Amino acid sequence: MVFEYKKYDGLGLAELIRNKEVTPKEVRVMALQEMEQKNGELNAVIHQFGKQPDEQLANGIFTGVPMLTKNISQESKGHPMTSGSKVLADYIAKEDSEFVRQVKRTGVSIIGQTNVPEFALLGVTEPVHNGPTRNPWNTEYTPGGSSGGSAAAVAAGIVPIAGANDGGGSIRIPGAFCGLFGLKPTRGRAPVGPDRGRVWQGASVDHILSRSVRDSAAMLDQYQHDRANAFMAPPFDGSYLEASRTPMKKSLKIAFTTTSPIGTEVDAECKDAVMNTVKLLESLGHNIVEKEAPVDGKRIANSYMMLYFAEVATTLSAIEDMIGRKVTFKDVEPTTWILGLLGKAVNAEEFLTSLKYWDEAAIQMENFHDEYDFYITPTTAFPPSKIGELDPTQFEKRLIRTIGGLGLGGTLKKTGFVDQLANKSLERTPFTQLANLTGQPAMTLPMHLTKDGLPVGVQVIARRGREDLLLQLAGQLEETDLWIDVTKNPTY
Q: Where is the Amidase domain (predicted)?
């Protein structure tokens, strides 16, 4: 049968397969053909699992639907898990991660893994080891990161859904840059095991990127309790898929801002995305108020960077156990090495003080949501950057080589470099870290194209445990003219 593979989202393909209009093998072949035609230009997929036409698929809501997983934290037994780094080039996963186990139970057919920046540390996907991933809307630009490979693959029509995770915006940033729907669930909602109880102290959560709201909702419905998880999300007894299909009948109170929480610039296009969306919501009967969240944005940024440094240092130590030797400056990218040195210079008091502010901010946001159902911001402060645009300058490269070679992380920390690095690292993406530290669910909505034809997103944050409310709103907005049709991008 000849059918328009790219016309369907994941649930649409699954319905065709259930009705025996197409076979899982036919759908998989179409996905692999799309990958073969497009991946050379996009570099979204860095490891293919092969055709495997006779694989045994579970009987579930996504039976036969092609899916890609992210090349970090989403291990598949017997396949590489490099995390974007040459130091793990030879590492083969010994078992499936719990996330992969659970998505396999939905019946998906996993056909490969997607590109990530080294150790998923950046908001662009340009690892030295695998090379940059390019944005399907314009291949001179980044698809964002760290789930940039997943976002590019979905936006290009290779697969309808792809695995992603989000420790500081890594679902929402690439979702925004590629014109996709991206939901970061509440802390503790998605599986993290079997060997991990938390990722990034609970800041990082796994889920998917998708073209449709309903695919994201349907996958969220499938996650089961993971006994390894150190956190427990507030229970939800309903169906997220049903929530995404349920019209929003009551008027909600919504706060919004277009001001950067760290006092940096916000591009006019990103502001326009928010303003057009809140005007639409107001026309739909919702009560809109311009108001910033009651948290200290700079403390959030510094708390996030403290986590960032410590987790990189811990990652490098764990890799030493895996490879049986010390990790050296030459094993990883220079920026990774510097972050690791800074992590080793963080003391226990600083780290625990930083974690304490996560809880303070979470309480402040809980109180905020007593009055406001949603908090809306731009997803990012700027549209996508060009490939290579954010590379270190020659001066920065020389400085990194000098400091890295001498191991001067403690000295560097005393110079105020941390505050400078926080501003530089987050000035383009200052809005997303809040929900990671507070544990709240947050989504990016594809609501705007710039004059250059590049997508930017609108972020919506809700109270912990209220993914249902987010999905209900997303389902309503998906039916409006503002919602971007990702199939209109040049590479689709």
A: 53-471
Instruction: Share the mean pLDDT of the chain.
Output: 94
For residue 250, what pLDDT is reported? 87
Which residue in 83, 85, 109, 146 is the catalytic one? 146
Candidates 170, 212, 303, 385; catalytic one:
170
Q: Report the C-alpha gap between 171 and 210 in whole angstroms.
A: 10
Q: Which of 70, 104, 184, 413 is catalytic?
A: 70
Q: What is the pLDDT of residue 160?
A: 98
DSSP per-residue letters across 156-182: TTS-SEEEEEESSSTTHHHHHHTT-EE
Whether 170 is catalytic: yes
In the chain the domains, ranked by start, together with CATH numbers, are: 5-250+442-488 (3.90.1300.10), 297-371+391-426 (no CATH)
Spatial contact of 410 and 345, defined as CB atoms under 8 Å apart: yes
What pLDDT, in 10s, does the model give residues 330-383?
999 988 988 898 898 889 999 999 999 999 999 999 999 999 999 999 999 999
Name which of 62, 38, 53 is nearest 153 in CA terms: 38
d(CA 444, CA 431): 11
* Rounded-to-integer distance, Cα 45 and Cα 152, Å: 9
Cβ atoms 27, 5 nearer than 8 A? yes
Number of helices (H) and strands (E) in the chain: give both, helices first. 16, 11
In the predicted model, what is the mean pLDDT of residues 38-66? 90
Distance, in Å, from the CA atom of 336 to the CA atom of 200, rounded to the nearest integer, reads 16
Q: Residue 451's pLDDT band (boundaries 50, 70, 90)? A: very high
Sequence-distant (≥ 6) Cβ neighbours of residue 118 within 8 angstroms: 83, 84, 85, 127, 128, 129, 332, 333, 336
Instruction: Give the pLDDT band (50/70/90) at residue 401.
Output: confident
- 271: annotated active-site residue: no
CA distance 472 to 477: 9
Q: Full-prediction pTM beyond 0.90?
A: yes
Task: Take residue 387 and report the two structure tokens written for it.
Answer: 């490939």
What are the residues whose beta carbons fall under 8 Å from the beta carbon of 284, sequence distance 6 or more?
A: 248, 476
* 75 and 81 Cβ atoms separated by less than 8 Å: yes
Residue in the structure block whose two tokens are 């045994």: 56
283 is catalytic: no
* Mean pLDDT of all residues in 128-150: 98
Work out the angle at residue 320's Cα, subtended by the Cα atoms of residues 317 and 322, and round it to the nearest 5 degrees. Answer: 115
**Mean pLDDT on 214-222:** 98
Residue 428 structure tokens: 């383009």
